[in-house]
Design goal:
By secondary structure, this protein is of the alpha/beta class. It is 43% helix and 13% strand. It has a 7-stranded mixed sheet with strand order 1-7-6-2-5-3-4, sandwiched between helices. Helix 2 crosses helix 3 and helix 5 packs across helix 6. It is globular and about 55 Å long.
Length: 280
């Protein structure tokens, strides 16, 4: 039954992306990237998250929405989420108040319809084999896009990691934050609980998302030191929202603390009980 439900979601994604992407490509001849985002990209991504919820049984709850600047706030923002699954690449664009500019490998542009649409949305695609030129492009376009009101999103681990593990945190986002006086918003997300990496299978359950307070680069702080602060917050918060994946942390806290961290949310509720006013 799980396989059938998962299959239905992916069939919906594959079939719906063709007409939506086609319309986006046609309208890209006449309107700017921001309108393409709000008219086509964001609604389709939100629909994919909704389909995963209604059909695949993948619900979510969010803590810390008040840490996000408002839609009218045009300060430079870089989102740095934990990366465990494809789910968060769909979810964050569906709920952020500003259009997002992903930094991603250019090979994604070759995916029919999906990749072609990415090319029209003013994002930052890079050649990972040319590291020096890749950074120059991130710095140049990142600054330009943030000046236009977009938020840059960079996964500091670079690739999806297994549940309970930690990747190597790269300093690219920290370098960009220091160069552009941007604030970094760290985000912990337990998406591997319901959609493990490299699979087309959903596990019904609840994904927890925790949005941290903006981290501001300090005077004289190096990219390594700044990213160490981002990493420390994310990895500590992961042990709060997904204690089952970190048995050592669970034992240190004791069974009562673990039970409180993992307490289920009632059906249909998409916010944490500890933070009931922050939901959508």
């Amino acid at each position: 039954m799980k396989a059938i439900r998962s299959g239905l979601v992916f069939i919906w994604m594959a079939l719906s992306v063709i007409p939506v992407a086609s319309l986006l490509l046609i309208f890209s001849l006449f309107v700017n990237a921001d309108r393409l985002w709000w008219w086509f990209a964001q609604p389709w991504l939100a629909g994919a998250v909704k389909a995963a919820k209604l059909i695949g049984g993948v619900r979510y709850r969010v803590r810390g929405l008040s840490n996000l600047p408002s839609r009218r706030d045009n300060q430079h923002i870089i989102l740095c989420p934990k990366h465990q699954s494809t789910w968060e690449t769909f979810f964050f664009p569906s709920m952020m108040p500003h259009p997002l500019a992903y930094v991603f490998k250019r090979e994604l542009l070759y995916i029919p319809f999906f990749g072609w649409s990415l090319a029209r949305l003013e994002m930052v695609h890079i050649d990972r084999s040319a590291r020096g030129e890749a950074w120059n492009k991130v710095a140049r376009l990142g600054t330009k896009l943030m000046d236009k009101g977009k938020w840059v999103i960079m996964f500091p681990e670079g690739t999806r990691t297994e549940r309970g593990s930690k990747g190597d945190y790269k300093t690219g986002a920290a370098r960009l934050a220091i160069a552009t006086e941007a604030r970094i918003i760290p985000i912990a997300v337990s998406s591997a609980r319901c959609w493990p990496r490299r699979t087309f299978r959903f596990i019904p359950g609840v994904i927890d998302v925790s949005i941290g307070q903006p981290i501001i680069p300090l005077a004289g702080e190096s990219p390594v030191e700044l990213m160490a602060r981002v990493e420390a917050w994310i990895e500590q918060e992961m042990r709060v929202i997904d204690p089952e994946a970190y048995p050592d942390s669970r034992q240190a806290k004791g069974p009562d603390a673990s039970a409180r961290s993992a307490s289920p949310t009632p059906e249909g509720v998409e916010s944490l009980e500890e933070d009931p006013d922050q939901h959508f």
